[in-house]
Design brief:
By secondary structure, the protein is mainly alpha-helical. Helices cover 65% and strands 4% of the residues. The longest helix is centred in the middle third of the chain and has 18 residues. The chain is flat, with a radius of gyration of 29 Å.
């Protein structure tokens, strides 16, 4: 609704207040950039600026796409101002399509050029100009307004879902793949009414393939089971279609987190018929490879298959091997762009490329880019009608919105998320049947629960099993996430025994590993664990530095809860160093942020990681 009043979310309000303060303190004219596509946010920011800059004329100017003389328009607006000497102009740049060959929503190039040519006018007349643009159009400003961009005072980042969805949709490739899969499914099901023998097998596999691409998983499984039964009844059809069918069945295996699944993979991988590139790569992309030598052994086969490379990227991400995940994702993009992939898998590959790129961006601290890529993945999965994956990715985006303080955006997206994905539930699998990665996670959870109940013997025993499970993996692909959790729990156990120095060394050792890999959130957790160690004269300065580094990470990622946690730890560390005024400042700032985002007052800090 056009006239609806919008309450600024805390992150946007903080950016707007900082912008108002800079405009108030500016002694001369210049340029500021504000980023955000939502019209309601723009109106709310304009109202805030007029309220905060009392005694200053704040003019709203909307330039048209075909504006022949933007500076004449701005000059005419300035003449009508009451106090031209203290003028602030909030200029909305138009967003339109400039041609059939250009991306929709691009800023008119000529308008940006004309503004850049007259760049001396605003500073010369003392005008303070705020240029409103959208997140996806920031590169246009850097390209077509290079001088204004270079001399900007600051950028106020206030994007929301409108920005992220816009970037994602412009990056999405239009495709008629969904229609093609529906036609393929309808034709295959039509052949099943009369076909027999090899013809029926081909129809079953075509129907299973199309149903899988459309996200119709129960129907996919039914057709695959029928295909398997048909091949068993008529061996003359041939073994290769059977193995291809089994490769797809393995993807839906109900116990793929168990040791039995590993044995199935080993058995089929040893069969000579699996040595062809097509069949072996099918195993690679469908098997959750438990970080061992198979990842390297099958890598050469996978290089020609984007789906296999993306599967490997996902496995690396699960273990915190960010650099390897980046390499695999880049290779998948190259293979996809070169047209090596099969046509029917193109849409799936695009969806998982955006999905994995979003996870990589999130772990790298590039929160805005992560949201853009996740929304892109949602768009692709929605085109495939893969409701389970759509819901999974939407929930990841919801968590990100919640983390950066955009609660309304999170609530809106959460309402769109439908049925949750039915992932494999490993809780029913016995401990000794789990693969090392899953066994490690299970026992780390048990150790944390034991600590919560102050059962130190049980915590130590569970931690020992988790440590052994972590060591059982391939040394090149052991989980760095697991390492971080293990070291934090080990430090916690050492603190209960009074050995704080050893706890610090343990955490610092893990910190070096995650820093080398670029795991920014895992680094934050370890820094907070160091800052949370009990006060001691020989480590108080180390605790203070760790809390300050953690705060810098929170500023980069824009995670509100991480900022609060870092401020509280920094306050406690400053108090231990005798810096009471600084400690009070940090604590008050944390309390104010909690109040702004509607959180409960902070609890008393516990001096433990």
């Amino acid at each position: 609704m056009a006239g609806r009043a919008v309450r600024l979310a805390y992150p946007h309000r903080r950016e707007a207040l900082a912008l108002a303060e800079e405009l108030r303190e500016a002694r001369s004219g210049g340029y500021w950039v504000a980023v955000g596509a939502d019209a309601g946010v723009r109106r709310a920011v304009l109202a805030l600026l007029r309220r905060e800059l009392e005694g200053t004329d704040v003019l709203a100017v909307r330039l048209s796409a075909d504006e022949p003389g933007p500076w004449r328009t701005l000059g005419a607006k300035a003449l009508r101002a009451k106090k031209a000497a203290s003028l602030v102009m909030v200029v909305e740049l138009p967003v339109v399509a400039t041609g059939e060959d250009e991306a929709p929503g691009r800023h008119p190039v000529e308008l940006l050029r004309r503004l850049n040519v007259g760049r001396e006018i605003a500073p010369g007349r003392g005008w303070r100009v705020v240029l409103w643009t959208t997140l996806g159009r920031v590169p246009d400003l850097t390209e077509w307004m290079p001088d204004i961009w270079a001399y900007r005072r600051s950028v106020a980042w206030m994007p929301g879902s409108a920005d992220f969805v816009d970037v994602a949709r412009r990056g999405a490739v239009a495709t008629n793949a969904t229609t093609r899969y529906r036609v393929q499914l309808r034709e295959a099901e039509g052949r099943l009414k009369w076909a027999s023998g090899a013809t029926r097998l081909g129809a079953l596999l075509d129907a299973a393939q199309a149903a899988a691409e459309l996200g119709l998983m129960p129907r996919t499984q039914r057709y695959l089971r029928e295909a398997e039964a048909l091949v068993q009844q008529e061996p003359s059809i041939g073994h290769e279609p059977l193995h291809r069918t089994l490769s797809m069945l393995l993807y839906f295996h109900p116990k793929r987190q168990s040791a039995e699944f590993r044995e199935i993979i080993e058995r089929y991988a040893a069969d000579p018929i699996w040595q062809s590139a097509d069949v072996t790569s099918a195993v690679v992309r469908r098997h959750r490879m438990e970080a061992d030598s198979r990842m390297g052994r099958y890598a050469a086969v996978a290089m020609s298959d984007p789906s296999a490379l993306l599967n490997l990227a996902g496995d690396c991400l699960d273990r915190g091997r960010l650099q390897a995940a980046r390499v695999m994702e880049s290779l998948a993009q190259v293979s996809s762009a070169s047209g090596v992939q099969r046509d029917h898998a193109a849409l799936t590959d695009l969806a998982f490329m955006d999905y994995h790129a979003g996870l990589i961006a999130q772990e790298s601290g590039e929160t805005f880019d992560a949201l853009c890529r996740l929304h892109g993945a949602v768009w692709y999965f929605a085109q495939m009608q893969a409701e389970a994956m759509t819901s999974i990715v939407q929930r990841l985006a919801v968590n990100l919105y919640q983390a950066i303080g955009l609660r309304d955006e999170a609530a809106s997206l959460r309402a769109q998320a439908k049925a949750s994905g039915r992932g494999t539930d490993s809780r029913s699998i016995p401990d000794d049947k789990l693969l090392p990665l899953d066994r490690m996670s299970r026992f780390l959870d048990r150790a944390e629960r034991a600590f919560a109940h102050h059962d130190l013997p049980a915590a130590g025993a569970a931690l020992s099993v988790a440590r052994d499970a972590w060591a059982a993996g391939d040394a090149d692909f052991r989980s760095l996430y697991g390492l971080g959790r293990i070291r934090r729990l080990e430090a916690r156990l050492l603190v209960t025994r009074g050995d704080v120095s050893s706890a610090l060394r343990t955490l610092q050792g893990a910190l070096a590993s995650v820093e080398a890999e670029g795991l920014i959130h895992e680094r934050f957790r370890l820094l907070v664990a160091i800052a949370a160690l009990p006060p001691a004269a020989d480590i108080d300065l180390t605790r203070y530095d760790a809390a300050r580094d953690a705060l810098s990470i929170a500023d980069r990622t824009r995670y509100v809860e991480e900022e609060i946690e870092a401020l509280l730890r920094l306050s406690a560390a400053a108090r231990s160093l005798g810096r009471r005024e600084e400690a009070r400042t940090h604590a008050d700032r944390a309390a104010e942020i909690r109040r702004q985002v509607g959180r409960r007052p902070p609890r008393a800090l516990e001096h433990r990681p």
